[in-house]
Each structure stands twice: as C-alpha cells, then as structure tokens.
Amino acid sequence: MVKKSIRNWANLKTARRIFHQRPVILWVVSCVSVFVVALADYFTGALVTLSAFYLAPLILVAWKRSMTQAQLMILLIVMSWAAANYYSAPELYSLDIVVWNAIVHWLHLTLTAEVLILFRKSQNELKQLANIDSLTGIDNRRSFNTKLFSILNNLKVKDIYVTMAIIDVDFFKKINDEYGHPHGDLKLKQVASILVKTCSEMDLCGRLGGDEFGVVFVSSNPHTLQTRLETLSKRLNNEATACSIGAFVTDGVSATPELIYEQADCSLYKTKFSGRGFVTITSNLPNSSDILKANVGN
Questions:
Q1: 39 & 174 share domain
Q2: Quick check: is 157 in a domain?
C-alpha cells in the first residue's frame, strides 16, 4: 500500500511530461485523430466542413513539439483534408481547385502553428520567471510552497513519512563582506546543486529566500530520512560551505504545510543556538527522540 502510494505520487508528477518523453504516443494519438476527422469529412460530404476539427491534433503537436514536427502534421492534415473532400464529391473539384485549397489550408495551419509556438514559448518564459530562482535555477519560494501543498495532499497515508528541512548558510553576510558578492553567489549555487543531486523524483527542493533553502524528503522509512539528512549536511559542509539545518519528520496524515514549516524552523534555531554546522531533527512520531543531532559540521 505504501509503495503503491509513493509510486502514484511519482506517476502524478511524470504524467504531464509523457508526450515529451514519448513522442511516439503523441504522434499516434495525433495521426489517429486526423484520420478520424478525415473519415467524418468524407462521409459528411463536401458541403459540410469539418476543417476546425483538424486543429486539435495540430495544437497537440505544436504545443508539445517543434515547428518542424508541426509542419509534418500540417502536411498530413492538408493531404487528408484534400483527399476527403475530393473523393466525397469528385464532380465538384478539379485538380487546380484542390491544389489551391490545399495551399490556402496549409498557410492557415502554418500561421496557427507559429502563433501557438510563440505563445507556448512566452508562457514557458513567464512560468520560469514566476517559479524559478534566477540565481540558482531551482524552485523559488512560491513554486516550492505550491509543490509542497501538492505533495502533502497526495500523500495522506500514515505509513509514508515526510521530512521538511530548512537549510541556512552559516555567516553568509560575512562571506559576502570578506570575499565579495560573486563569491557568495557561487556558494549559493553550490548549495543548490547539491540539493538537486540529493533529491529524488519524489522529493522537492527550493530557495526560500536569501541564504535559506528548503528540502522535502518522502520515504516509507523514517530512519532513511534521518540518514539522508545527515548525508546532506556532510555534503554541504564538505563540498559547498558550512550550513545549519533544521528538520522535522512526520507521517503523511499529520503533515500540513504550517506544521512542518513551523517545526523545521524551530529545529533550525536549535541548531543555530547550539553551535551551527550540523542538522537538528525533531519529530512527532511515536518512540522518536525529541532532538537527534548529527555533528557533521565543524
């Protein structure tokens, strides 16, 4: 049950990318759609137009793939449309009319595809500006919170455990003052890179603001979460810069954004007031210690 729930969450995250990862499926769906519309066009006759319905497969290809592939789909649509109309009423069409109508149809569909692709690119750029931290390339606070809410809503199972960790770069102002802001930016990028490498497809990481980062780990074993946090702390201190981490472990049923944020923040303050450079883990799970320290920093 637990493994199935975790798999369902992973499938939910990847479902929206299926056409990007498997373009063959996209092309099969699009081609079948064109042939279905062409058959309907043939049986309804030349006087009844179904040209608008050819837009659906074109929109699918243009939105998910490139202009080159969109042109291939346009060619298929134009040929199918011309054949359906000609053979449904050959007495109404000469070769010149068929060719002229096909050219006009091709121009119309090409302009439509161009507009769609330009709109898609602008949407992607706006989405990136809204959701991606420009310095580190990972999710910003807005996107992190949105994805966190989605994760918690889809993991309402008692035997699945969630960890929220807040990571703070130690003495970041001192780094900027002594070595300059470019060096400080480099350290932030290094921290973000380690977080991305540490996270699996079911996990989440983001920059919450300034020198503060957030990580969410999901697992069916709470001890695994503790091990991963300790490993993360070691990697940050050894490969990037000294960092303090506060983490909170709970089950999927109990987890709410407010709870895990608040408790992870409390854990972070315990780390800072106890020497910095390590991870403090707290939990509301039965039979768990109140504070688990991993002195892996300085």
A1: no
A2: yes
Q: Is 211 a catalytic residue?
A: yes
What Rg do the C-alpha atoms of the chain give, in angstroms?
Answer: 27
* Cβ 245 vs Cβ 233: under 8 Å: yes
The predicted-structure confidence for 81-117, as pLDDT tens digits, reads as follows 888 888 887 777 777 888 888 899 899 999 999 999 9
Domain boundary among 82, 101, 131: 131
**Within-domain flag for 260:** yes
The DSSP output letter for 139 is B
Contacts of 36 (CB under 8 A, 6+ apart): none
For residue range 47-65, list pLDDT tens digits in order. 777 888 888 898 888 888 8
Query: Domain holding 279: CATH number?
Result: 3.30.70.270
Q: How many angstroms separate the most distant Cα atoms in the chain?
A: 90
State the pTM of this model.
0.66
> Hey, what are 242's tokens?
């000294």
Judge if 82 and 185 occupy the same domain: no
For CA atoms 160, 141, 274, 182, the dihedral sign is positive
> Which one of 139, 168, 170, 211 is the catalytic residue?
211
Question: Across the strands, what pairs with 244?
Answer: 168
Residue ranges making up the domain that contains 28: 2-131
Do residue 157 and residue 276 come from a single domain? Answer: yes
Secondary structure of residue 92 in the 3-state scheme: helix
Going by DSSP bridges, is the β-strand pair 161-169/212-219 parallel, antiparallel, or unpaired? antiparallel
Q: Per-residue DSSP letters for 11-75? A: HHHHHTTHHHH-HHHHHHHHHHHHHHHHHHHHHH-TTS--GGGGHHHHHHHHHHS-HHHHHHHHH
Using DSSP's 3-state secondary structure scheme, residue 159 falls into: coil
